[in-house]
Each structure stands twice: as C-alpha cells, then as structure tokens.
Amino acid sequence: MKRRILTGLLACCLSLALALPGFAAGAIPSPGEVSQVVTALGILDGNSGGSLELSRNVTRAEFITMALKASPNGDQVGEASTSPYPDVPYTHWAAGYVEAAVAAGLATAYSDGTFRPDNPITLAEGATIALGLLGYTAEDYSGAYPTPQLALYRSKGLDQGVSAQRAVDYLTRQDAMYLFYNLMTASTKEGSVYVTQLGYSLNAAGELDLVGLINGEMQGPLVASGDWQASIPFDLSGVTVNRNGVSSSVGAIQDNDLIYWNQSMNTLWVTSEKVTGIIQALEPSATNPTSVQVLGRTYEIETAQAALALSDLGEYGVGDTVSLLLGRSGGVAAVAGPGAVSNGTVGVVAKTERGSYDDGHGGTYEADMVTILATDGNTYQYQWTANYLEAGDAVGISFSSDGTLTLRRLSSPALSGQVSQDGTRIGSLHFAQGAEILDVTGSSAVKLFPSRLAGITLKQDMVTYYSLNGSGEIDRMILDDATGDAGQYGVLIGMESFGEGLYATYSYEYDLGGTIYNLPASSTGFAVSPGGIRVVGDPANPDRMYSLSEVKATGLSGYTLQAGNRTYQVAEQVVVYEYRDHQYFPSTLDRVQELGLSLTGWYDRPENQGGRIRVIVAR
C-alpha cells in the first residue's frame, strides 16, 4: 500500500503549525486548504516555478496521471513497456500512467482508437474515471452515457467546489483538485471511505484527519550536516520552511537539525529539539534497544539508525554522553555526540548534584553533574566540576576542537522597561527574528515567543541575561518568572494546623494538574485557603505556596474568560477541574464549556505583569 497510518505523530504540537480545518459534509473549503491535501498526497504538482496553474484546463493525460497517483498503488507506476495507444507512444511522459490506467480499467480510447492525451478532459470523462476509483464499472450504470455517471457523481458529493456543470464542460486544474479532494471522503462501491484505502481515516466528525494525512506523506528525517541539501530530492529555491513551528528559511537550518519534507508541497519541516546527557539505561537491552533513558526520562527510539547507534553494535552505550535528536513525535530519531550542541548555546543552571553513575561495564563511578535549561528549549546535562555553579546561574556552553566542554558564567548589562504592545521591542531594543527567550521559575522553564511579553513591564531583577546579534537586536534572553508560565498550579483541597507558636505544625492536601500531594507535618504555615493555588519548588515539599485571586465567570469563549464587565486571558496550560461530590476531577476547557457548568477562575497576577487565569473549576 502506498500510504501508512501514523498514530500519535503530532501529539506535541501541534508543534506542527498546520492549522487546517476539516472538511465537514456540506462545507466547501478554500482552494488553499484543498491544495495542501492534494499536493501532500502527490496528486497535483506545480510547475517549475511552483505554480499549480489552477485556472487552465487539465488534459486527459494529466487527469489520468492524477487518478493513478490518487490510487493505493500510485507510487508503483513505472515507465511504459509498450505504447498503450497509437498517439501515446511508450516514450510519452504519461505513457506509464496511461498503460496502468488501461490495465485498471480506468482509461478508454475514442472510437477511432486514439487516446488524445493533450485534449482537455470533460466533466463526464473525469467523473467516470473518479467513479472507477470508487469501484464502479460500466455494468453499474443503466441508461445512456453520461447521464447515470453524472447522477452518481453528484450523489457521491464529488461535485462540491467543481465549477464545471455540463457533461461537455472542460475541467480546470482547480476542478480536478476539488474532485480528487472530494474523492477522499466519498464511499466506495463496497461502502468504505475511499481514504481508508490509502491508509488514512476520518475523525469522529467524519472529517479528513488532515494533520495525520500530511504527516503521513512526509519523508525524512534527515540530519542536517555537511552537504545535506544534496540529499533533498528537489530544488530548495523558493521552498517553504517551518522550523520549530515558526516560518523560517533554509539559511536558518543549523547542523544537527532534523529535516522532514514533502516534495509536492515544496515544504520542509525542521525541528531542533535535542536532549544532551549521560545514557542511564537502554531497554529492553543493549542488543536491541527500543528506548533510552537520559536525564531521568525515557525516550522511545523511532528510527532504525538511532537504534543501531545506541545498540552494542553502534557507537554509544550506557555511561556515554550523547545528544539525542528528537523527531516530530518526540522520540529519538538520531544520535550525535555532545558536541552537537552549538557553541552559541546559553541557558540557566537548573541543578547541580554529585551522584553515582553506571559506567556501562558493570561498574559505577562518582561524578559532579550540572543540568542546564537552554534558551533553545532543550535540556542538557554534563559532567562538570560544578562547585562554583549554582541553580539559577546563566551559563554558556562551548566545545573546543577536541571536544572539551567549557561552561562559563554569563553576565550582561542591566535591562528593564516595558515591552511594546506588539511584542517587537523593549524600549529601543528590538527582538531578532527567531529570538530565543526562556522564562525560568525554580527548576522549571518555558520557552516564549516575544509576543507573549507584549505590554509587560520587565523589572531589572526579572532579566537574568540577554545578548544582542550583529544588528543590535535581542537574540537570546533569560527571564526570572516574568510571566508565571513556568509555575505549578492547582487547587488546595484542605489544610489543618496543630499546636501553637514554636510547636505549630501544618498539614496540606493539594492537587496539581491531577496529581494529589500530601504534606502532613510542615513547620511552615503558608498563607493559603482552599481553592486555586500556586506552588513554588518541589511539589512534594514546596518552598512556597500561595493562593490565587478568584473570579466568578459569567462566560467563557476560547481562551477568554468573562467576569461581569471584565475579561481575563486564560493560560494555554490552564488547569481545569470538575468539582463533584466534594472531589476535584481533572477536565478540559472544551468539556466544561459543552456541559454549561458554573465556572470559577483563579489568576496569579495582573495581565500587564504576565498574569493569566491559571485554574478553572466547574461546578
């Protein structure tokens, strides 16, 4: 089968940045939406300049080629072995497709025995071929051609978005594009949905799973190194590049980025996510690893190349420091040495520790370890004499030509001021395109886009570090809890106090995003009350805990909460609960809106200080 089903490929992300609406029955999507699907499947190609030439008529040779490409085995069509028709010699560019169409019963000649490949195709001809893909043959029609064919064509919904109406009307390339798009959700003669023959499915609403479809048609990954551009099977001039979910360019692709592509869409998708640290375990064994543990987290291995590199037949094993290059699904797609980290990488120390580590040969060794949260959004861990580094220190990572690591403390001039309302600058300093911003709270951090800081006043103690590029623009920045987005939020379920004065102890029970914690005998009396809270530090033994501000919602639309005549922005990672039978149950925004429950929101700070609704409880 030509295509394959990829499950769970885009749980991050949507990390994908393809905001494509589904095609519900009765809705006619725009040509741009349709073209993304049809070109992703390789059915429709552009010219040398990338234009799809949608306004011109489509020829019979072009249409039959599209039809074969839309079939389950369309990528297996080779060159013609014979001349299928007198006017289609085996040397004709479409001869292989015409020959395959004849064998499949999709193509027929005119009464004079010619195929006329350069003639524009009519609606009747195109509709009959499309119905052939659905399994219908001449025996299924009663009546004079093309009346029954066009009746079935319309009853199947193949006509949505097609401008040609009469049997003799010529189809434009846009008409053909819509026709093949409609084909995907049409039912076959046997009653199945056509797209299932290509390895895909519809969602619960009966819509094309466009994200899964486009992901399934991607090729790669390819590790960017050396002359990687020569390995991409098409010209990269004018190519569309999406790097880490943001529109980018070929020039922005860096060594050890992972590249995926779709030739028909003329698009590259690039990810730079990586984790660098010591291999702590390989499961189920080093002879055939399917997962690897680094930094205390387990990552599935998603490519044969990565499995080989991490096996006992490869270059790396337990105890080695590596950079895991993570693919679009979050698994390990490739493996590189620790030097894969750019010498320009900067971050903040999350923690330093001394521990015992497996040497990969049945023994252990003691070493200092430093964990770094970097502005590129990745986490790195290195063996390093870290007695002069502390959590919260801004550091730069660099490697010498022989691979020797250096970690150096970073400092920068003081910076404060209000970020512009469009999020493009702080005072007179502009953010560079693709600026890397890390907001750190304790040992947690989130990567931000400059737009998240719009309108926020940054105080001097909020800016730990920043750097400027050659154009004098801010290209990297480390913030100290400027937005609160890296915080831990939830609800305090209950608290009690015991004793008085110096002998007082306190117990707390709280839920953070569905995980319940009990602090049974704390000497710290936190100023909290049941409801929304924020916890700072280790959630099991927090440094601080404080209550959020409560608002009664009168409405909720998307990520905007209405409370009387005021509106509040809801955090993207808002924690949502349903309160039933005196218990909190984790829920979602969509669910509580559908149920029409009474909502209470809790926010952490004013919006001009980065505040958001962090917790919502539905009753």
Strand content: 25-35%
Oligomer: single chain
Structural class: alpha+beta
Shape: globular
Q: Can you give the mean pLDDT? A: 86
In the predicted model, the low-confidence regions spanning at least 5 consecutive residues are 1-25
DSSP strand count: 34
Count of DSSP H/I helices = 9
Give the N-to-C terminal Cα separation.
50 Å
Q: How much helical structure, as a percent, in the residues?
A: 10-25%
The main sheet comes to:
10 strands, mixed
Rg, please? 30 Å
Q: How would you describe this protein?
A:
The protein is an alpha+beta fold. It contains 9 helices and 34 strands. Helix 1 packs across helix 6 (173-185), helix 2 runs parallel beside helix 4 and helix 4 crosses helix 5. A hairpin with a 2-residue loop joins strand 7 and strand 8. Strands 6, 7, 8, 9, 10, 11, 12, 13, 14 and 15 form a 10-stranded mixed β-sheet that branches. Strands 28, 29, 30, 31, 32, 33 and 34 form a 7-stranded mixed β-sheet that branches. Strands 1-4-5-2-3 form a 5-stranded mixed β-sheet, with no helix packed on it.
Question: Concise description?
Answer:
The chain is α+β, with helices and mostly antiparallel strands.
Topology:
Elements lengths: L30 H10 L19 H10 L25 H9 L19 H11 L13 H9 L17 H13 L24 H7 L2 E5 L16 E4 L2 E3 L9 E5 L4 E5 L2 E10 L7 E4 L2 E4 L3 H7 L10 E6 L5 E5 L9 E13 L5 E11 L4 E5 L10 E6 L5 E5 L7 E2 L6 E2 L2 E13 L2 E5 L8 E2 L4 E6 L5 E7 L7 E11 L6 E8 L2 E8 L8 E6 L7 E4 L1 E4 L2 E3 L2 E4 L2 E15 L2 E4 L2 H7 L3 E5 L9 E6 L1
Parallel strand pairs: 2-5, 6-13, 18-22, 31-34
Antiparallel strand pairs: 1-4, 2-3, 4-5, 6-7, 6-9, 7-8, 9-10, 11-12, 11-14, 12-13, 14-15, 16-20, 17-18, 18-19, 21-22, 23-24, 23-26, 24-25, 26-27, 28-33, 29-30, 30-31, 31-32, 33-34
Helix pairs in contact: 1-6, 2-3, 2-4, 4-5
